[in-house]
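Allow me, if you will, to draw on your knowledge of protein folds for a short while. A protein sequence and the structure tokens that stand for its backbone fold form the material at issue. I would ask you to consider whether the tokens describe a fold that such a sequence might reasonably adopt. Thank you for your consideration; the sequence and its tokens are set out here:
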Amino acid sequence: MRNIIMAGNWKMNKDAESTLLFCKGLAEGIRDLSAGVKAIVAPPYPFLGLALEALKGSAAQVAAQNVSFNSDGAYTGEVSAPMLASLGIPYCIIGHSERRQYHGETDQTVLSRQIKLASSGITPIVCVGETLAERDAHKTAQVILTQLKGCFETITISDPQSVIIAYEPVWAIGTGRTATPEQAQEVHTLIRTWLAQRYGAAIASDLHILYGGSAKPDNIRKLLEQEDIDGALIGGASLTLEQYLPMLLTANELIKARNPK
């Protein structure tokens, strides 16, 4: 049975001091977290080392928010997968809708980044999702399948733990508007069906698919109760312990209910 992954994407928020305070509080707050729940935080680049140090020995892990599709060279301002690996970063978000919207990210560049991460032993969190116009035009399935085909065009998956997919409806990111659990489940089923067709039933069954899009304490339970939602990629609600910790505890309750002693 798949465990639950709760990944917090801080985007361009916090400074060094608030990063340390948050991570120390998180480490303390998840002392009793079940092994079936994985907490991940994705701070901005300057604070990755601080987060790693503050969370050392805890149940939480650290992700980067992006990576270059080049390994090294004259690319001012870029950060490569080998650099992240040298820090011991285990996860990296790629293809987030904000990267697509503001920085020209495409399915092809997501594919290139995914290849670089895999070669450095870092698990990519690959984001896909449709805009409001695409949903209103009933093109959700078409958009998601096109993105999946592009992002995974040459990718071979032999280990379902080697990649995570995050479905993030663009119209629900930072808007306060959330896909209903049923809407989210429908797309997660679509993704898992595609995975089964491409990589086989065993891979599809064990690979984690997260929901991203205004997930918060008051809606997370119903989202996580859906059969194919294996956690969340959380934005604003991951910036404070007052919101993030209750979401982790909800995930913990659900895992315990699924696996009673």
Summary: The chain has one domain: 4-258. The mean pLDDT is 95. The CA atoms of residues 157 and 199 lie 7 Å apart.
